[in-house]
# Entry
Amino acid sequence: MSENASPQTPPARTPADPAPAPAAERRPTTAPPPESAGSRGWMQAALTERSAAVGGWVHERTGHRGAFDWFANRTLPGGARWRYVTGPVCLGLFAVVFATGLALMTGYVPSADAAWASVHHLERTPGGSMLRGLHYWATHALILAFAVHLGRLMLSAAFRSPRELAWVSGVLLFPLLVTAAVTGNPLSGSQKAFEQIEVEGAILAGTPGAGPQLKQVLFGGPQAGHLTLTHLYALHVAFIPLAAAGLVLFHLYQLLRWGTVRPEDPLAAGNPDTVNQAHSSEETPYVPNQMLRNAVAFAAVFGLLWFMAGRQPAPLDAPPGEGVESMPRPEWYFRFLFELRNYFPPEMEFVATGALPTLAILVLAAVPWIDRLGHRVGAAARYSIVFGGLLFWCVLTIGSMSRDRADRHYLEVRRAAHVRAERAAELADRGVPPDGPGSLLANDPKTRGPELFRAHCAACHAHTGPAVESWGPDHSIEASECNAANLAGFGSRRWMRGLLDPALVDSDAYFGCTPFAEGGMVGYVKDDLWLFVEPGSEEAEEKRTQIAAVAAAMAAEAGPRVHGGPPIALDHGDETFEPEALPALAEQGRELMIGDLSCTGCHNFAGEEYGDSLTLDGYGSREWLADFIANAGHERFYGEENAMPLYAPNAPVDGEEDPSNTLTRNEILLLTDWLRGDWVGRE
# Structure
C-alpha cells in the first residue's frame, strides 16, 4: 500500500453471508487466467500502480511536478483566443531553427574552400535537402511571425506596467533574430554568399569611428576569406543563439510572472498604473483550451514549411568565381534598407543602414514610457508605429523589387547566376576536385567558353544558328560587327557542307564579310566545284553525294571528344547516312579530296604537302583548333595573310606561361572545347 493511501474498514458481514472457511481449508488466491477480462483489468491496475510508484520516486528526488504546476494551472483572463497563438508559434519556430541548425552542423565545414562542397554534400545526403530547406524557411517564417507578434503586443498594449521588461526583451530579440539570419546567409560559401559578405563589410566600414576596424575584425583581414566564414559561423551558431536564448528565457519568465493582458481590463484600456488582476470566475484554463489552438496553428505553419522545403529547397548558388558579374541584393526583410540607401549620398549611407534602424529599435523599446504621456498620445503612437511602419516597409520593399523586375540587365545577371548554379551542382555530383569547388566552373568549357568567346571573339565572329540551339541561350552569341565566319557547329558535317555550297560560301556565315570574300576558296566553290552542274540534274545529286563524303572526311579529322559524348563526325549530320556508314564515307571523301576535287592543290592534307594554304590534317581537332586560336599567323594556318589577333604566339619558357600572351593555354583549351561542343555532360 502506498504512503498516500488510507486504510479501509472491511464491510460488516450480514447474517446471510456464509462464514469464512477455516484458514487451513482456504486455497491461495491466484490471478485469473490471462485470457479473461479480469486478468486484463488486474494487469492494468498493476501497471498503473507501478507507474505511480516510479513517478513518485522521481518526484521525491527531483520535484519535477512542482516545476510544471505553473503550466498545468495557468489560466487565461477572458478565455482562449486565436490571436494568442503568435507567441507559441514563434517559440516553436525558434525550436525548429535550433534543432535543424544543430543537425546541419554535423556536416558543415566553415572554410572558404570547403563550405560550398559541404553544403552540396548535405543536399545530396538522404533527408539533407529537406533538413536545410526547413532551416531556411523556418528562419524566414520566424522573422515574419515575430514581427506579427510584436505588432499584436503593441496594439493590445501588452507593454504596460509591470510588463515593460517583457516588452523590451522582445524588442531586443527581434534584431538578434535578423542578425542570426544575416550571419547565416553567407555560410553556404557561394558566389552570392561572398557578395553578401562584401555588402555587410561595406556597411560596417561605413560606421563612423570604428567602422574600418569592425570590418577587419569580421573579415579576419583586409579581404573576405577563410577566417570570415569562421567568424560568421561562430556568431551564427554560438554567440547570437546564446544571447537570443537568454532573452527568450527572460521574456517567458516575465510573461509567466505577470500573466496575459485581459482584453477588457483597465490596463489595456489606457490606465498604465493598474496591474491586471484576473478574476477566477472569468478565467479559462490554458490547458487544453489555448494549448489546442497553439498546436493547430503551429501544425499549420510547420506543414507549410514542410511543403515549401520539399517544393522549393533552400537555394545554393554557384561557388565563387573570378570575373563573374554580380548585382547582390539583400533578403526580403532588408530590401527596404537597400532601397532607402538610394535616398542618401554615398557618404551618408550609414544613416540608412545604421542610424535609422538603431533609432527605430530605441523608439520601440521606449514605447511603454511614451504611452505614459496620455491615452491619446499612447494610442496614436501604437497605431502610427504599427501601421505607419508597415506602410513604410511595404512601399520601399515593393519599390525596390519593382525596379529590379523592370531591369533587364539585372534579370539577365540573375538568370545567368541560376544557370551557373545548376551547372555547378551537375559537375559537383560527379565529384568536387581537390583544389576546391571554385575550379568546377573555372575549368568547365560549357561555362567558360561563352565568356571567353564574348571577351575575345565576338567582336568579329558570331556563334548562332541551329547547330547550337540545343546548347542553351548563353551559347548563341551575335557578333559586334561581322568580320569573320560564324563558328557555330565548326568542324561538323553540316558546317563543312555549307562551306562547299555555292549559295552559302560567300554569305555572312562563311566568307561574305571577310577579306576573303573574293578569294580563292570562294572562287573554287562557285566557279570550279559546281562548274557545268545543272540544279536538279543527276550531276547535281552526284555532286551533293561527293560533298557529303568530303564533309564526313573533314569531320572525321576533328577526332573524338575529350570529355565524352559522340564524335563530332556524328554531329549535325545528314540523316541519309547511318552512323555505321560514316567511316566508309569518310574514306571516300579523303580519296576525293586528294584526287578528283584536287583539294591538295592548295591545302596540305594526308601527306600531300604541295599546298601553301591552311593545313587540313587534324582539321577541327582539339590540338589543331587550340594551335590555330593561339597563333593563326603560323605557317600551318593563314601565314602572312592572317587577319586574326595572335592570342598566344609565344611558347612557354621553362614551363611558365609567357605573360605577354593574351590567353593562357588553359583558356585556349576551354574555348576550343566549347567550340567543339566538348564538355562534361554531353554524353
The longest helix spans residues 226-258. Residues 1-19, 21-31, 264-281 have pLDDT under 50 and may be disordered.
